[in-house]
Amino acid sequence: MPTGNASSTGKNKLETAGQGWRSRYAASLLPVFAPPPLLITRGQGCYVWDDSGNRYLDMQGGIAVNALGHAHPAIVAAIADQAATLIHDSNLLATEPQIALAEKLIQMTGGDEDTRVFFANSGTEANEAAFKLARKNSGDEGKRTRILALTHSFHGRTMGALAMTAKAALRTPFDPMPAGVDFIEPTPAALHAAIDDTVAALIVEPVQGEGGVLPLPDGFLALARELTAEHGALLIVDEVQTGMGRTGDWFGYQSAGIVPDAITLAKGLAGGVPIGAMVTFGRASTLLARGDHGSTFGGNALATRVAATVVDVIEQEGLLQNVREQSAALTRELPAALADLFGGIRGRGLMLGVALSRPVASELVAAGLLHGLILNATDPSTLRLVPPLVFGDAERSDFIAALSAARSELIE
To answer: Is residue 2 part of a domain?
Structure first.
């Protein structure tokens, strides 16, 4: 029996089948990612197929991007229709899909006549806009010079977003970072100690995805809203991964019963078509003036048309309720599937972190491929499960069976 690794026979078959594209990949793409294990040629629903015709259940969902799975007919139709009509024009002109999506987001967030939307192309770009928004909240005398972010946070890889990302290994090669960001533990005591009238903004993720699927402590968002309002600081909620129904609500902050000053969105917003957004509320909508920020591609007609379609499908197919039901079922069934490897579950909705009792997450990911399962590990002891929101009973049955079989590969 294998000990700690997937069977060498199965692994060798995968490697042999991919020798051609692997060498082409290595010879043509900048090596900023780990070598990919598969060449995916098509997808349907929650499944994808590789170049050898093998089918895999996609439990990483494009890392929480493919909200409606692969090749959803409504997205296919929206892309085809909009591409035949208008794909892009500059933001010097308006398009109906752009305006319509902005109106939808204002309604979904519970916004009012003061709520505004800025469109970008990714989560990193949305958080870059939020970084600039925070800088503009310096106050009449310019005393607000600090931005607070949380330990274990991840907000992106451009310089402003990276400056708010906690992992030093990601920032250090590109020092000096933009100044003024302080990292604090996500605890009430740390927040009380750090916030004062010199703070321009606090940025938080309701569930820290890249940090290991770590939910904020109960009551933290409500306290953050109270203290930021007291000191004139902005509360910015990064919903790039948690937004668009991922947690079982439209947005992760909504369960706390608060309204932040700004939220950022991307990933699931357009189901795989690149888009990002920042939604501002109240006085935060007055901070960025004409010329302060912009985007050539942001909010183009194709991306915004598809995003509005994603919203419609989530509503029409009752996917928020599906997320809550499937989350509860997974929570019940995962302990038996992993047996002695099971160490607990954290997260919300279909954004779950499965703690392992041993640091074998990478080995389990590799074993999963041999059993038709695409998994994602955020650290040696955590699996991150972010399948499409259309993940249903049949897919869950396949997942539990494949995960149990993958776990058996690791039995000593």
So the answer is: no
Give the DSSP per-residue string, 156-171.
-SSHHHHHT---HHHH
Q: Where does a domain end: 286, 316, 346?
A: 316
Q: Which of 261, 290, 316 is the last residue of a domain?
A: 316
Contact 161, 131 (CB under 8 A): yes
Domain extent, residue 342, equals 8-66+318-408
> For residues 73 and 82, what is the distance between their CA atoms, to the nearest angstrom?
14
Q: What is the 3-state secondary structure (H, E, C) of 123-156?
A: HHHHHHHHHHHHHHCCCCCCCCCEEEEECCCCCC
In a domain, 271, yes or no: yes
- 361 assigned to some structural domain: yes
Same domain, 199 and 300: yes
pTM of the predicted model, to two decimals?
Answer: 0.94
What CATH number is associated with residue 122?
A: 3.40.640.10
Domain count within the chain: 2
The DSSP H or E segment spanning 279 is strand 276-280
pLDDT digits 0-9 by tens, 221-275: 999 999 999 999 999 999 999 999 999 999 999 999 999 999 999 999 999 999 9
**Cβ distance 402 to 62 under 8 Å?**
no
Q: What are the C-alpha distances in Å from 229 to residues 233, 237, 283, 286?
A: 6, 14, 11, 16
β-pair type (262-265, 234-238): parallel
Helix or strand or coil: residue 270?
Answer: helix
pLDDT tens-digit profile of 56-70?
999 999 999 999 999
Dihedral of the CA atoms 367, 368, 374, 378 (nearest 10)?
-60
Whether residues 211 and 311 share a domain: the answer is yes
Across the chain, how many H-helices and E-strands are there? 14, 17
